[in-house]
Amino acid sequence: MQHLSGSAQTVTLADVRRAAAVIRDSVMVTACNESRTLGEICGCRLFLKFENLQFTATFKERGALNRLQALLPEERKRGVIAMSAGNHAQGVAYHARRLGIPATIVMPIGTPMVKIENTRRHGAEVIITGQTLEEAAAFVKAHAAEHRLTQIHPYDDPLIIAGQGTIGLEMLDAVPELDVLVVPIGGGGLISGIATAAKALKPSLRVIGVQAQLYPSMYNAVKGAQLPMRGDTLAEGIAVKAPGQITTRIVRDLVDDIMLVSEDQIERAVATLISIEKTVVEGAGAAGLAAVLAAPDGFAGRNVGLVLTGGNIDTRLIASVLTRELAREGRLTQLALDIVDRPGQLAAVCNLLASAGANIIEVSHQRTFSDLPAKATLLELVIETRDRAHLEQVLARLGGEGFAVRET
Is the residue at 87 inside a domain? Predict the structure, then answer.
């Protein structure tokens, strides 16, 4: 990739270092620890930057604070406005309250309730409008002009980018031997800042971006592709249809590649971080691990740094992700059996499952609403098994005893 010309170089290592000095006393230097278990699974040394442990559970407060500190006295008095699917909102709201600056946050319809409530808790006025970030952005522009508010952009602002880039400084300070950084991309502010700092400090280091397959906006912009953008993604924090102009220029120049990850891969990464690292990470924050798990050969033998960008995820959604992962692993399965409607049949199935070591979670005995003959009944079960191999053994036992069984 060609280097940016001096006129286009909007953020420098010096800017990132200045941002580090500005935020030093108010933003946590989060741990950057090696995960030996995940490293063994992925075939590399894996270092996790726990930005989900910030006070607002997101890295976004770095850039937000750097931008807020640069406001003029009159701008502070009038207040600020920001659009966000949640994490930028919390960063702006939290630090604006600390600094005594009135804050209005515009969030698109469908933003997770945990992010809305957390933002309100930080004292900001929250306005819910627009089906997408882009529609919310249009409202912000008009509202800011009407009320003379200063807009704090979530990613396309040199001060925001520099603030996010402080993560790169901290990661290389903690683990100088890093070979690769894997960073989620939404609008591009985080990866632009990290790449600016990391490439200046260690030019040989590779920076890999990750986007949700459903929202490959930066991938399209950089690679000249026209992949569609649609649907609900678990990684709503990086579901951005139009990346920033500043960030796109920096990504073209400094980022080595961009990978796309599916919803299944993101879900697996969220579940894996909970089960192995005992840490809660939202979909966008787990995208980096999703990429490494999906293509381990590309990272084999390397020292890889991942940014766990945030932990703001609804508990209901966590439960759904974990349950779905159990189903993928063959540990939780729904079965349907056609059995003869006579006494003892249900008990026979239950005893057989117990002898095979399976645990029954739910039972539904359906006589009326099925297309089976009148002397038959539909038995639906949810069972728990150790793994896929154990499930296959249980199914074989049922089939061997003459029960017609199928997974549903």
Answer: yes
- Long-range interactions of 354-362: CB distance < 8 A, separation 24+: 355/397, 356/393, 356/394, 356/397, 357/385, 357/386, 357/390, 357/394, 358/383, 358/384, 358/385, 358/390, 358/394, 359/383, 359/384, 359/385, 360/384, 361/332
**Residue 206 sits in the same domain as residue 78:** no
Contact 352, 327 (CB under 8 A): no
**Are 20 and 89 within one domain?**
no
Residue 343 pLDDT greater than 90, yes or no: no
Among residues 49, 39, 110, 89, the alpha carbon closest in space to that of 285 is found at: 49
Whole-structure pTM value: 0.88
Residues 206 and 354 grouped into a single domain: no
Q: Residues 162, 196: one domain?
A: yes
Task: Look at the chain and report how many structural domains it folds into.
Answer: 3
Two tokens, residue 28: 């946590």
* Position 309 pLDDT exceeds 90: yes
Question: Tens digit of pLDDT for each residue in 181-240?
Answer: 999 999 999 999 999 999 999 999 999 999 999 999 999 999 999 999 988 899 988 998
- Calculated CA dihedral for residues 296, 298, 301, 302, nearest 10 degrees: -110
What's the CATH number where 125 sits? 3.40.50.1100
Look up tokens 């600016």; give the residue.
196
How far apart CA 261 and CA 155 sit, in angstroms, is: 21
pLDDT reading at 6 higher than 60: no
